[in-house]
Specification:
160 residues, alpha+beta, Arc Repressor Mutant, subunit A, Alpha-Beta Plaits, 7 helices, 4 strands
Length: 160
């Protein structure tokens, strides 16, 4: 496929979809003064080019009873155990993100829990994985910034 380049209309479509992935194409079309068919075709092209790889649902975790967030740095006995440990971490549903990192930790995880007791149980599960020597936990007091739109706009400015 030929290299696909995003234009201002694509940026505007993405902007609205990032704000709300469930925005109907007809609403986007009305706001941009283009046809819904054009929106559909452009979104399809962005999917085929790999710019859009899916959509997600934003949940209010506090209403679901999971407002406690902790970040857990994982230290491994040997880096060769990374894949094995990641596979075990992936079996813990309350670990929502895991990164292989450089620096202090081998793996860095985000944990969602009901409360401190629940978080402790999750952290103990991570500690008990073969190859994990210890963990270091940081508790999130609040998520102050989570803004994909600012990043997206910066990226768009750099690719024009």
């Amino acid at each position: 496929m030929a290299k696909f380049k995003l234009d201002e209309t694509d940026h505007n479509i993405l902007d609205m979809l990032i704000e709300n992935t469930r925005t109907p194409f007809t609403d986007i079309a009305k706001k941009l003064n283009i046809s819904a068919g054009t929106v559909h075709v452009r979104v399809k092209k962005m999917e085929e080019a790999g710019f859009i790889t899916g959509s997600s649902l934003k949940l209010d975790y506090s209403k679901l009873g999971y407002s406690f967030i902790a970040y857990v740095g994982v230290f491994l006995q040997k880096t060769s155990q990374t894949q094995f440990v990641l596979e075990r971490i992936n079996e813990i549903p309350f670990v929502t993100v895991a990164h292989v990192t450089t620096g202090k930790f081998n793996i860095f995880c985000k944990v969602r829990a009901k409360d401190t007791t629940h978080a402790k149980d999750i952290i103990y599960q991570i500690d008990d994985i073969e190859g994990v020597t210890r963990t270091e936990t940081m508790i999130s007091l609040e998520e102050s910034i989570n803004d994909k739109k600012r990043l997206m706009h910066s990226i768009f400015q750099n690719i024009k």
